[in-house]
Specification:
Number of helices: 7
Length: 207
């Protein structure tokens, strides 16, 4: 959702220009621009819902297949000498957060293993992995390169990735109970991708 407001509405609450695509809340007394970010759009949420519906049938009928190539890309470790703990250490994670990250990674992996051969579950995972990677490198990695404080980086991780993804899953809550992902699983996906060398928490090209 994006709300663009130009000009000061003044006492009569009149706007020169307002563009509204999807409004969760709208304050007519606002005098500054408001920007809310959401995961994808209605179309992507519907596509996710379709996969969840298909997944229900696949589970009932035990329809499975080998991992699709696109998803295998994310589940295969890329070339790199550093493991997840080293990468997070380079990213200024304190030791207690690294231990929590290891726990969340395993927490996600155990849940995902139960559904890994269902075709629609693979498509759902592919969509989530792809979105996490691109949101990370669009919004998070520039902060890392700018040596932004770790606490701020983690706030942006939650704002840009975890909360929007959970919004989409909540939009499909009628069918999503099969995977039943929560915030911990989404963080686990982030750390899983880190362990597979798809996400870096430091610019190694400048080391």
């Amino acid at each position: 959702m994006r709300v663009d407001i130009t000009g000061n509405p003044g006492s009569d609450n009149t706007f020169n220009q307002t563009e509204i695509q999807s409004v969760g809340s709208y304050n007519p007394a606002a005098t500054t621009a408001i920007t809310n970010f959401h995961f994808g759009n209605v179309g992507s949420s519907k596509r996710m819902g379709t996969y969840f519906e298909k997944l229900m049938d696949e589970i009932r009928q035990n329809v499975t297949e080998e991992t699709i190539d696109e998803l295998r890309y994310y589940t295969t470790r890329l070339d790199g000498t550093k493991d997840m703990e080293e990468k997070l250490t380079d990213g200024n994670f304190p030791s207690y957060e690294i231990q929590d990250a290891l726990r969340l990674k395993e927490f996600y992996a155990k849940r995902a293993a139960r559904f890994e051969y269902y075709p629609s579950a693979q498509q759902i995972t592919l969509m989530l992995f792809s979105r996490i990677k691109h949101e990370f490198y669009t919004y998070i990695f520039p902060l890392i390169e700018a040596e932004t404080p770790h606490a701020v980086v983690m706030q942006e991780i939650r704002f840009r990735i975890v909360v929007p993804i959970m919004q989409v899953l909540d939009d499909n809550d009628v069918h999503e109970y099969q995977l039943n992902y929560n915030d911990d699983h989404i963080y686990g996906m982030i750390y899983y991708l880190t362990g597979m060398c798809h996400l870096n928490w430091k610019n190694y090209d400048h080391v």
